[in-house]
Amino acid sequence: MLQKTSQFLREANYIDGAWVGADSGATVEVTNPAAGQTIGTIPKGGRTETRRAIEAADKAFHSWKKTSANERAVLLRKLHDAIMDNQDALAELLVLEQGKPLAEAKGEVGMSAAYVLWFAEEGRRAYGDLVPSPWADRRIMVTKEPVGVIGAITPWNFPSSMLARKIGPALAAGCTTVAKPATQTPYSGLAWGVLAEEAGIPKGVVNIVTGSASEIGDELCENPLVRKITFTGSTEIGKMLIKKSADTVKKVSMELGGNAPFLVFDDADVDRAVQGAVAAKYRNSGQTCVCTNRFFVQEGVYDQFVEKLIQATNELKVGSGLEDGTQQGPLIDQSAVEKVEELIADATSKGAKVVAGGNRHALGGTFFEPTVISDASPDMRFMQEEIFGPVSPIFRFKEEDEGVALANDTIFGLACYFYTGDLGRTFRVMEGLRYGLIGVNEGIITTVEAPFGGLKESGLGKEGGHQGIEDYLDTKYVCIGGLGL
Ligand code: NAP
């Protein structure tokens, strides 16, 4: 296990290139969810520390924005290399505070590096336009410039890669950042300060504060020096941040909650669907925004799918993320376990059957058995609520239109998946689903090359793809006359 002396386990905030505590000296304890033990502490910062970080970021912005896209790309490539050189240590740190299996943690850290590298290149392609002018003596230019200081707030389920999607494009565009990682998983966030130092990123360009979410969030939203808020987390907090950012008319990017449907049609390859279902459901113990929340299976293959999913689920190895072969770690905390229990009790009281798992795991703590629930119906709570746990409720449907209507019956619109062997159906269903991310015969689809983001109340803006840098750029129109043409 990682020792406290590890260079990445920083019990301090990173402001203006210095490692500092909260002004009051107050701290918050951080716990390992697998062992229930304290790992260390972090500063309990608030408005004052955040304001100082914003002022440092604003000062740094004036010189950082003047660096060339190529200079920034060189530094971002160094940041990428620093992440990859330390992939194992960063992954262990992630497991320690978050609980996911080591292989998943390594994957997440690799993904963080991949986002940084992608945006290192995209920054060099932040093209403007030279527009055909309606006037013979004037020219029209459209330029792209960095937005300014960015406030970035991230959740505990992907504590490394969610920051990569924000710090990567921000720095590539020429913006500076003040980041606030989740209190339950702060060390993977603070590690970005160590990595930025190692890569030689100038002081003030990356700042990281921890502590009171409401105080830090309020300062980021209200301070006029911050020109954009980028948030990944729950829809509830996202809506609040949009409202709070309105007074200073900031740009906002929101990666919010999901309620992913997973449709299996009669003509699907059921074995492939089960394999995709396990990946799309039990990864990170079901605690991802793109995890399947509702399975809709057409009646012709319903029994077969349920039986095969039970078998696959029963084979999953539950354990500490650092143990070899672990496929499902603990849940983040006791309230997550209680929510899962409440949702299962609600379902069984309305006629659903628990056909695999259904209980706290024998390992104790916050471990929960991988669970399958058959005979789910739309009046059950998980039709509308994010489960965020290892539970697969399976609904039955008859007609294609009915399946699509059930899948769309939610305020969310982040990820969805469907399995079919019919080409016409592929296009009909794909065009009918109101989701920002669609996996067809695939259960894992996130990649840096593609735009990630939700529709409806799942969010605003895209992260990744060539679209991912746009939100960090302002567009300016310049009309040049008096040219004597
Ligand atoms: P959360 O409760 O919304 O917290 C996310 C972040 O917001 C944390 O850093 C939290 O800080 C902070 N926060 C809480 N209250 C705040 C306030 N008043 N002002 C400013 N910041 C505040 O979400 P979570 O439980 O950590 O994460 C799970 C949610 O994230 C799920 O809904 C999931 O679907 C969503 N998610 C979405 C995506 C996506 O890309 N769409 C990706 C991952 C997760 P503290 O930790 O200090 O409370």
Describe the protein.
54% of the residues are buried. It is built from 13 helices and 22 strands. Helix content is 36%, strand content 22%. With 485 residues, it is of the alpha/beta class. The chain is globular. The N and C termini lie far apart (71 Å). The mean pLDDT is 97. The structure holds NADP nicotinamide-adenine-dinucleotide phosphate. NADP nicotinamide-adenine-dinucleotide phosphate (NAP) binds next to helix 7.
Task: Offer a concise description of the structure.
The protein is of the alpha/beta class and 485 residues long. It is built from 13 helices and 22 strands. Helix content is 36%, strand content 22%.
Physical arrangement of strands within the biggest beta sheet:
14-15-16-13-12-18-19
**Parts with pLDDT < 50 across at least 5 consecutive residues:** none
Bound molecules: NADP nicotinamide-adenine-dinucleotide phosphate
**Discrete helix count:** 13
Per the principal axes of the C-alpha atoms, what is the gross shape? globular
Number of strands: 22
| Largest beta-sheet characterization | 7 strands, mixed
Secondary structure category: alpha/beta
Subunit arrangement of the protein: single chain
The level of helicity is 25-40%
Distance linking N and C termini: 71 Å
Rg calculated over all Cα atoms: 23 Å
The average pLDDT score comes to 97
**Strand composition percent:** 15-25%
